[in-house]
Amino acid sequence: MCIDSQFAADQDKVNRRCLEDELRDPSNFVEYLLPRPLRLLLTGFGSASCLVATVISATRFLSELKYQTGDNDASTVVINLLGFIGFGALFFLDRQAATDRVARREKVRKAQVAIGDREVYTNADGERMSRLKEVNSDWIIRRLERWGRRDALPFIGPKKGALLQQLVREQRPRLAVEVGTLCGYSTLLIAQAMPPDAQLISLECDWKWALVAKRFVYQATTGDKKSKPKDQRIAKVDVWWADALQALPSRFSGKGRIDLLFLDGLPSQYLAYLRAAEPLLAPGALVVADNAGIFAQGGLMEYLEYVRSSGKYSSRYLESTLEWRDDTADGLEVSKLL
User: Fold this and answer.
1) Which residues contact 112 (CB under 8 A, 6 or more apart)?
2) 3-class DSSP assignment, residue 25
3) Beta-carbon neighbour count of residue 35 at 10 Å?
4) Rounded to an integer, what distance in angstroms lies between the CA atom of residue 335 and that of residue 329?
5) Residues 313, 286: Cα–Cα separation, whole Å
6) Per residue in 128-186, pLDDT tens?
7) Which of the 8 DSSP states describes residue 133?
8) Residue ranges making up the domain that contains 198
9) CA proximity to 131, closest of 3, 2, 224, 4
10) Is the overall model pTM greater than 0.70, yes or no?
């Protein structure tokens, strides 16, 4: 029991240290090189020594009543006094900066609690503390949503994303393919809704976005060092840097039939994507196309006519709103292979 208590206490100290490290915010190179206790010690010692030297030199100057001597007592008094003022100012400014830093840290903690990245708990001593939540797929999705909303990135968004996840849960695909990864937001939404032992392959033709998506997918599935080696709730995810029109016909041999195809690339290429994937689709496969509302009379016109009129699919439109824009109608075209 004592060993367990000691371990808990040691772990609590580690958590406190991690919290301080995570919220540390050096503003210049001095704060990187000299920790605050050492800076306060140096400036405090310098201020005190200059004060003592000022008193000694002033006493000598007044006792001997010398204004101009070889000893330069007057200039020594001035120099020591300036040193005392300078070191003292640095000491109190550093103390004030520390107070401001504590206030900023508290503000950061409250903001993290408000957005769901931090949780409040009570430790073994009854103290209320907070800690960052485990880095997993939910944590990364929240981050990507804030990024997408701030910069108006063309993610599927939380409203259409919820519809997409419901479709995936109903379909329960063993193999899903996404065309157009970007940062991996919809990738993680799909993977969360798939069976844990299933596989999702996401295709992105821009190598820069493919690298970004790989990073976020890795963080979402692996988590931090304290977490499990893999988030057990989501499917296996592979992000390929590849052109879908070339990869679909050539790189999917041996992968099995595609149970779900999500199209979120260039709207004018949706029909080409679908035709390239059709030989790989399993009977009853589900094809979901994003932005079927705002591009219905533009780039998706031929695609929508094909899935609705070719006789190969049973197709329906799920109405929603454009990502980050509740005042603009948009939706998903959901087509089931007959």
Assistant:
1) 118, 130, 132
2) coil
3) 12
4) 20
5) 9
6) 888 777 778 888 898 899 899 989 899 999 999 999 999 999 999 999 999 999 999 99
7) P
8) 137-337
9) 224
10) no
Token digits of residue 67: 């204004």
Q: How far is CA 327 from CA 42, 144, 289, 320, 330, in A?
A: 59, 22, 21, 10, 10
Residue 146 amino acid letter: R
Contacts of residue 200, defined as CB under 8 A and 6 or more positions apart, other chains included, come to 175, 176, 177, 178, 187, 190, 191, 194, 235, 236, 237, 238
Q: Are residues 101 and 146 in the same domain?
A: no
Q: Ramachandran region of residue 116, left (φ > 0), alpha (ψ -120 to 50) or beta? A: left
CATH number for the domain including 159? 3.40.50.150
**Angle, vertex CA 309, rays to CA 306 and CA 310, nearest 5:** 65
Residues 58, 153 within the same domain: no
- In the chain, DSSP assigns E strands to 118-122, 128-132, 175-179, 199-204, 236-241, 258-263, 281-289, 313-322, 325-337
Collapse the DSSP code of 246 into the 3-class scheme (helix H, G, I; strand E, B; otherwise coil) and give the result: helix
* One domain for residues 78 and 29: yes
Residues 310 and 184 in one domain: yes
pLDDT digits (tens, 9 = 90+) for 259-281: 999 999 999 999 999 999 999 99
Same domain (yes/no): 164, 307: yes
